[in-house]
């Protein structure tokens, strides 16, 4: 759903990436392994731009040949789903605050991809929007 494929480029002995689905996402590293470790963080920062600009976050496209897939955490996936559910309903953060009876800081944290919210809190917010979080386990 939100496992984004990145393009890996090597230049002058270092690596950098771009993402077709999230063009704002870029990462770099001195090695390919370092780049891949940083890629999830780069995606999370880029996703914050979508929230700031009140834009829905696009689903991930299937990976093309040569691309690497970055798997975001279950928590980040749930937060993206929450944000997109809000956008579907035309809601802003203040609307979610009212719906949940929650303080602005709590809602800000629920929509901060770098904040380690409790998954239960995201579930509660999704339920308030008529959504249910489903988790599955797949073989790698």
Summary tags:
single chain; 140 residues; alpha+beta; 2 domains; four-stranded antiparallel beta sheet; 5 helices
Description:
It comes from Pseudomonas kermanshahensis. This is Type II toxin-antitoxin system HicB family antitoxin. It is a single chain. The chain has five helices and four strands. It has two domains: 3-71, Double Stranded RNA Binding Domain (2-Layer Sandwich); 74-128. With 140 residues, the chain is of the alpha+beta class. It has a four-stranded antiparallel sheet. It is elongated. It has helices spanning 32-52, 74-88, 93-100, 104-110, 119-128, and strands at residues 3-11, 14-19, 26-29, 68-71. Strand 1 and strand 2 (14-19) form a beta hairpin. The mean pLDDT is 96. The longest helix is centred in the N-terminal third of the chain and has 21 residues, at 32-52.
Radius of gyration: 16 Å
Name of the top-level CATH class of the largest domain: Alpha Beta
Strand content: 15-25%
Assign the CATH architecture of the largest domain: 2-Layer Sandwich
Q: Tell me the span between the first and last alpha carbons.
A: 16 Å
Order of helices and strands: EEEHEHHHH
CATH topology of the largest domain: Double Stranded RNA Binding Domain
Overall form? elongated
Question: What order do the strands of the largest sheet run in, or round the barrel if closed?
Answer: 3-2-1-4
Task: Record the SSE blueprint.
Elements: E1 3-11, E2 14-19, E3 26-29, H1 32-52, E4 68-71, H2 74-88, H3 93-100, H4 104-110, H5 119-128
Helix pairs in contact: 2-5, 3-4
């Amino acid at each position: 759903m939100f496992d984004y494929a990145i393009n890996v480029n090597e230049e002058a002995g270092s690596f950098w990436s771009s993402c077709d689905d999230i063009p704002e996402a870029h990462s770099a590293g001195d090695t390919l392994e370092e780049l891949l470790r940083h890629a999830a963080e780069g995606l999370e920062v880029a996703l914050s731009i979508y929230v700031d600009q009140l834009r829905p976050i696009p689903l991930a496209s299937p990976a093309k040949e040569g691309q690497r897939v970055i798997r975001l955490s279950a928590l980040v996936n749930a937060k993206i789903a929450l944000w997109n559910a809000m956008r579907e309903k035309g809601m802003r953060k203040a609307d979610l605050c009212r719906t949940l009876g929650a303080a602005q800081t709590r809602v800000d944290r629920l929509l901060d991809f770098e904040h380690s919210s409790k998954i239960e809190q995201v579930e509660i917010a999704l339920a308030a929007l008529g959504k249910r979080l489903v988790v599955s386990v797949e073989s790698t």
